[in-house]
Fold these 2 entries.
Entry 1:
Amino acid sequence: MCGLIGYVGDEPAAAVLSGALARLEYRGYDSAGVAILNDGIIILAKDKGKLADVIKACKIDTLVGHVGIGHTRWATHGGVTKENAHPHCDDKNQIAVVHNGIIENCVELRARLSRKYKFISDTDTEVIPHLIREYIDSGLTFERAVFAAARELKGSYAILAVSMLEPEKVVAVRKESPLVIGLGVKSNYIGSDALSFLPYTKNVIFLEDNERAVITKDKVTVYNEDHEELTQKVTQIQWEWKAGTKGNYDYYMLKEIEEQPQVIRQSIMQDNNLINRMAIEILRARQVVFVGCGSSRNAALIGRYAFSKIGHVFSDVILGSEFGYFSESVDKRTLVIALSQSGETADVLDGVKQAKTNGATVFSLVNVAGSSLARMSDKVLCLNGGPEIGVAATKSFMAELCLLYLLAFAMDGTLEKGRGMLRDVSDLVEADLPRHSSRIPGIANRLKEREDFYFLARGINFAMAGEGALKLKEISYVHAEGMPAGELKHGTLALIDNGTPVVVICPTDYTFTDTITNIMEAKARGAHIIGISNSAESVFNDCIMISKVDEVLYPLVTTIPLQLLAYHSALARGLDPDKPRNLAKSVTVK
Ligand code: F6R
């Protein structure tokens, strides 16, 4: 959700910023831009469109200078236009600002500032450079003016600002949107995530809410809201930046799908003591509530079945954006388990803050170590999935499932046996891959004209129906609904017509017989049935065969075929699966 980068050092800023923006592009890709300081003036280059096109059209590679800021946009306020692209400047072009988040009081601020300064965009962000200008005009230095402006802003923000008045520095402020400082040699960086500058340094400082920073080539200074200098907590990032590259693949999504057998093996390498301590707390809690959004929420729904079936604990799942509405029922005997790939999803962070205020204990399952969610949790399990760049969640979903199963096995006192079962499944998932890769493109191609898909399943597989539908919607832009198979006859059956594609997840487990009955009902109305099963049933028009596994573990073997169906459907429709329209990977706004 908008990617920011700032750089001060000996290297040409244009090259550093362009590379960093490419690594941040998964956060937003409707427009991009940079502001680079050269010889005491700000050179602004920005436009709408994908980063590579903007770099080319604006000749960003040719810009000279060693200090700069850059931005990839995911539009919130104002359409996708050149004027609305970041950076935004003040009237005199002396200050340039990039921003991620939402300024909630932008209407009032704009009304006041537009009496003095000319606005040229529709964004909420543009109030920031004008506000900084107002403070400079009242006598403050640039640095102090940025901090004073931040005090007036309501909402969430990560802001980077540069000015020709103090051309050797990038000034940063953060509230509820991530910012990470990278410490280099004769160069320093600040970005929305550490991946942006990972080729240069692994030594980072995570800014906390309401902290500010001043970054020069030789020095980084971090302040609290009262402008007191803070002791810096430097940590080391474990990821290798090469893990975040596409390698020989055309798309990140396919690479990340195919990494999943290995991701299962990596994700289950967890500290036994930690898992067992967490399991004991789960068993002792008065109530256990999962919180997550999108695919992470679907993983939580599967976790709910696994906790019940394996760990004998009843739990509930609440969407991040709805969590606050249950605050009356959350107290210090509540255990909240938050799931998030990014650890920065605003709706999840909001829910977790509410839970903490009410005294609840918070465990989190996150992929990005050091993320906001990880830092605010009482106990954290890292997914160990490596960087996930494709916008659609794939390997992070798989890793979340594995950790939920591990916790469930630990609750049952069978952690080691369970880990062995998960390891065995990783081999079966690997063995299934070539078959899926040859079978699924043909199915996707045959169905490429269809605009409505239904996904059905029961029991622990039901959330896989939701996950399959979500993947298809987000990257293929077709309407898809996932639902418990038993619900079909309660209304949705009216939509089934001749040739309507119905994807059914029905391994020969405890859900099999009832699911087959529901498919018969759909088939009788003309549905085209795509079965995902370990048994080739005659009711299927198309069959995607999966390996037979223990019946609680089927979600692990149905994940990849559903992801590949969505991936190949996107390709069959001529779409870029890595950059679906209107979406961004890290959703840092409410
Ligand atoms: C779906 C997808 C999204 C995310 C959701 C939560 O493919 O990617 O639905 O799952 O935005 O993101 P995290 O897990 O980062 O909190």
Note: The longest helix spans residues 415-446.
Entry 2:
Amino acid sequence: MRIGYGYDAHRFKAGRPCILCGVQVPSEFGPDGHSDADVAVHALMDALLGAAALGDIGKLFPDQDDRWLGADSVEMLRQVMALLADHGYTFGNADITIVAQKPKLAPYIDAMRTRLAQAMETDVVNISVKATTEEKMGFTGDGTGISAHAVVLLV
Ligand code: MG
């Protein structure tokens, strides 16, 4: 068993789509970034790569590279899963926490779990997605941005 941890944060920008765990959440603002800026999938990929000690997403998908401009992070996640399989790893489970004051994420959690489970070719019981706020403190609390944490086990 190998454990991995990932963290990511993005600034919110008005007019950007708010895509989290591959699911578009209705919002007037979304995470800004080079790819689709899916902060939750970015944290998850770093956790997966961390568990295998295969670097991080900055190494795999450099943001100077225009191939990843506006990229679908779920597609990048599929590539990470393929890389792990190449190295002989089997996915165990993942637990993701998204931290944002707004938008409200509770109605979309099940869709997020399903989307990730499909992309990762695993059962939905192996994917946990949670959402929390930081009680209006700090950059997630004042609406400046959003962050996500992920832990995974690989076998
Ligand atoms: Mg990111």
Note: The pocket of magnesium ion is lined by residues 8, 10, 33, 39, 42 (CB under 6 Å).
